[in-house]
Automatic annotation (TrEMBL):
<dbReference type="InterPro" id="IPR046357">
    <property type="entry name" value="PPIase_dom_sf"/>
</dbReference>
<keyword id="KW-0143">Chaperone</keyword>
<comment type="similarity">
    <text>Belongs to the FKBP-type PPIase family.</text>
</comment>
<protein>
    <recommendedName>
        <fullName>Peptidyl-prolyl cis-trans isomerase</fullName>
        <ecNumber>5.2.1.8</ecNumber>
    </recommendedName>
</protein>
<dbReference type="GO" id="GO:0005737">
    <property type="term" value="C:cytoplasm"/>
</dbReference>
<dbReference type="Pfam" id="PF00254">
    <property type="entry name" value="FKBP_C"/>
</dbReference>
<keyword id="KW-0963">Cytoplasm</keyword>
<dbReference type="InterPro" id="IPR001179">
    <property type="entry name" value="PPIase_FKBP_dom"/>
</dbReference>
<feature type="domain" description="PPIase FKBP-type">
    <location>
        <begin position="6"/>
        <end position="71"/>
    </location>
</feature>
<dbReference type="GO" id="GO:0003755">
    <property type="term" value="F:peptidyl-prolyl cis-trans isomerase activity"/>
</dbReference>
<dbReference type="GO" id="GO:0042026">
    <property type="term" value="P:protein refolding"/>
</dbReference>
<keyword id="KW-0697">Rotamase</keyword>
<keyword id="KW-0413">Isomerase</keyword>
<comment type="function">
    <text>Also involved in hydrogenase metallocenter assembly, probably by participating in the nickel insertion step. This function in hydrogenase biosynthesis requires chaperone activity and the presence of the metal-binding domain, but not PPIase activity.</text>
</comment>
Length: 160
C-alpha cells in the first residue's frame, strides 16, 4: 500500500547526529502516527514517506529548514523561573518546558538569575541536518472524523 494523502501512517524512527550517534528513537515505543498530507509532520520526513510502502526502511538527511528549522540568532527571551518546568534548579545548557499560548515549548537555558532566566527559543536541534532512519510500519485510510479533525486518532496519534 503506497502512502498517499488522507492516510494514517505509523512509523518508527531513529534520529542521528552529524557523527552518526543516536540522539533519540521510537523503536522501543509505540510508533509515531500522523495524518499524511495535513501538515502534521516535519515536511522533510513527510515528503520522504510519501509514495513509500508499509515495510519500507530508508534513511534521509533533510535540510534543517524542513525539520527543526533554521537557527535564529536573536531568539532569546527572559522568562520568570516559575514558568519553567522540568527541574528544581536550573543551569545554563539545560532544557526546559515553557507554557505558551500555542502549548508547551522546549527552550534551552542560557543564563539563570535569582528570579528570571534567559532562554534560547530555538529548538535544540535547529540548524542541524540530522539523519532519520525510518521504518513505515502501517498505513490505513483515515476516517472521515480524522480528516475533519486534521489529525490521526488512536495509538501514536491524538487521544480524545
Amino acid at each position: 500500500m503506497k502512502i498517499e494523502d488522507d492516510m494514517v501512517v505509523q512509523f518508527h524512527y531513529t534520529l542521528k547526529d552529524e557523527q552518526g550517534e543516536v540522539i533519540e528513537s521510537s523503536v522501543l515505543q509505540d510508533p509515531i502516527a500522523y495524518l499524511h498530507g495535513h501538515d502534521n509532520m516535519m515536511p522533510g520526513v513527510e515528503d520522504a514517506i510519501h509514495g513509500k510502502n508499509v515495510g519500507d526502511k530508508f534513511s534521509i538527511t533533510p535540510a534543517a529548514k524542513d525539520t527543526y528549522g533554521e537557527r535564529l540568532p536573536d531568539a532569546e527571551q527572559r522568562v520568570s523561573l516559575k514558568h519553567l518546568t522540568g527541574a528544581d534548579k536550573w543551569q545554563p545548557g539545560m532544557s526546559a518546558l515553557v507554557n505558551t499560548d500555542q502549548g508547551q515549548r522546549q527552550v534551552t537555558i542560557v543564563k539563570v538569575g535569582k528570579f528570571m532566566a534567559t532562554v534560547d527559543l530555538n529548538h535544540p536541534f535547529a540548524g542541524r541536518d540530522l539523519r532519520f532512519d525510518i521504518e513505515v510500519v502501517s498505513a490505513r485510510a483515515a476516517t472521515d472524523e480524522e480528516i475533519a479533525h486534521g489529525h490521526a486518532h488512536g495509538v501514536g496519534g491524538h487521544q480524545h
